[in-house]
Amino acid sequence: MQGIIDRFEGEYAVIHVCDKRINFPRDLLPPDTVEGSCLNISIEVDHKTTQARRETIEGLLNKLKNKHGK
Predict the structure, then answer these.
(1) What is the DSSP letter of 3?
(2) Cross-sheet strand order for the sheet of 12-17
(3) What count of Cα atoms within 13 Å lies in the side-chain half-sphere of residue 18?
(4) What is the maximum alpha-carbon separation in the chain?
(5) How many Å separate Cα 53 from the centre of its chain?
(6) Which among 28, 1, 27 has a CA at the least distance from the CA of 16?
């Protein structure tokens, strides 16, 4: 997927992606990014981190249930 930097508004870059405008934190972009820059955007699921978060949340919920169930 590609995006194009339309303009900068304060701390944000306005990026056109798939006929949508996205406000993206400017400080997360490469330092040489300027208006008109084309960006390659890759989105992927981090399955390992997702599973770890689920397990953490499940553990916290179980603690709450056990605490209030007594």
Answers:
(1) E
(2) 20-25, 12-17, 2-9, 38-40
(3) 3
(4) 61
(5) 16
(6) 1
pLDDT tens readout for residues 21-54 = 999 999 999 999 999 999 999 999 999 999 999 9
Structure tokens at 23: 């406000």
Give Cα 48 distance to the centre of its chain. 16
pTM of the predicted structure, to 2 decimals? 0.68
Q: List, as one string, the DSSP characters of 4-64.
A: EEEEEETTEEEEEETTEEEEEEGGGS-TT--TT-EEE------HHHHHHHHHHHHHHHHHH
24, 12 in Cβ contact below 8 A?
yes
